[in-house]
Amino acid sequence: MHCSLGNSFPIFLALSISACATAPRPGSGAGRDDSRPAATPVPSSAPGPWSFSPAVGTRAYRVSRNASIEGVTDSAVRREVVSNFTHEILTLEQAGEEMSFRVVIDTFAVITQGPIEPAQIAELPIQLTGSLGMGGVRVETPASDSCDPVRATVAADIHNLLAPAPSQLSRGAVWRDAITTTGCQAGIPTTATTRRTFTVAGEVAYSGRPHLLVQRVDSVNARGEGANGQHRMTVEGTGAGSALYYLETASGEVSRLTTNQRIRITVTTSGRLHSFTQTTNQEFVLVR
Question: 3-state DSSP call for residue 229?
Fold first, then answer.
């Protein structure tokens, strides 16, 4: 099938230029807001250790996102809001010392509030492949080098879900990594570097089963440069974020993941500066 993609003044907001939709799957969450922040549970005093590694097999996730961007244009405050819902099927297989993955996106629905106009066409389902090893996640580059904000969004999902972790974890354990992701926002190639710090909070109950709660703190720097029509454009962004992982050690699966991020964006075009603030909340829920 084919679905329209939208495009609007927020250059960095991938969601607002990715307005595809399929018929909602039962229980997929399409059409409602599932990304409202929930209270963080209090971990038990158990010190561990625990072990966690992604298990081979297939699992499905319902992903919901809310993004808003605010800025001043023509001396007026302007705000746009986008809600995005996807259904993603992730398969992991052992491949020597690494794991290979395949993710298939069969639903990508967007609800918008603001003047978002059709820009291009995407086709579903979309499939991404890659590997997970000691060096982290590697997403295979598609044969086409054309801009594809939907693929960029899902590639970021993989980096979230398949975050590396030590083989042994104890309460208070800390580790760090840095990832670089590329995308294309409104026709402008972009590169973002995210430095992440993970901390094991401890064991909690989720859906009636014991899970390991891991907290993450991010710092983000992004930059893009290209042409928008006849105008040369530069985009820069800096910000911070956080995340909560619910890891089921018995099954080797991420049962739930929530993230939030706030980025200050500066767009330079034709010698003029435009500043925006983008806030994004995401929730990943395992639906088997």
Answer: coil
